[in-house]
Amino acid sequence: MIRGMTDFRVESEQIDLPSGAFCKSRRDYVRWRGRTILGLSANAFRAYLFPVCTPAGLPLTEESPIDHPHHQSVWIGADHVDCLLPYAGGQFEVANYNFYVQEVFQGRAPGRMIVRAMDWVALAERHLRVVQDIEWRGPAEWGAAKGRAIARESRAIDIQAGDLAHVIDVRSRLRSGACDLQIGPTRHAYFGIRLVEPLRPDGNATLVDAQGRSEVAAIDGTDSDWIHVAGQITRDHQAGMACFPHPPAGAFTWGVHPWGTFDLNPLRRESCVLTAGKYAEYGMRLVVHDGACRATEIAALHREFCETRLDDWNDLPESL
What we know:
Elements: E1 8-12, E2 26-32, E3 35-42, E4 47-52, E5 74-87, E6 91-99, E7 109-110, E8 112-124, E9 127-137, E10 149-160, E11 165-176, E12 180-183, E13 189-194, E14 206-209, H1 216-219, E15 227-234, E16 237-246, E17 253-257, E18 261-265, E19 272-274, E20 279-290, H2 295-307
Parallel strand pairs: 6-7
Antiparallel strand pairs: 1-2, 2-3, 3-4, 4-5, 5-6, 5-12, 5-13, 8-9, 9-10, 10-11, 11-20, 12-19, 13-18, 14-15, 15-16, 16-20, 17-18
């Protein structure tokens, strides 16, 4: 529940259905002073943010586009997730999963991210923190009728509401499940963002990174400090989104695609090995704004981001 005096509300979507019918998935909306900031969405495979709206209420992300239906607005995922299954003599076998595509992908079985618990607390008048306990579980298979418990994730979403821009921090702490894991290297990880059509880089949107590069090919595969895209969302309204990796000096690589998908990937060149008691933690900040925003303004926001101490979240629970 929301604790303390606040203008935030977290409200479940209400859909009237015929008697006996039920919704297959759910969505909870985070609203501030009656305006929707984002939705906490979950389907059979993923937990993700959709919609993600500007202060004026314009959604800037797309859910399940026809060309990549597994691209779900703002999501977390990873391909090449290898679970090390021990057997006699200290040896192990490798079970291969993907937590990226919602079907078998290049021979790797599709995993599911299941929200086991969720809580939220207002930290200030304009600051709400949502924490989700998410289980990464494999599909049903021989010897694991309910699927293997692959990993456990604590995901925290900090939402700072504004009149001109909303600031959204997403951080993910991932631990192994019953067995050790190796994730990557893979080009399909960790944070993904799918933008609405007016913000596609191959259209009329304006794209720029911290080095002043504006071409998709020049930015893709680099480790720039930030990226920003903006455009004409409606006939009379401009808006855009900036993204900053956290921590600022992290080894992230950008994947930038002309159809409007951005990946922020710490696992493109190196693998992550998770043994018992170990965890990996990755994060990013989104600045979702109305109106035009110059590169100098984005650079100033990034400097402020780097100078502001963020909690290390050592108090994040392994499960809520």
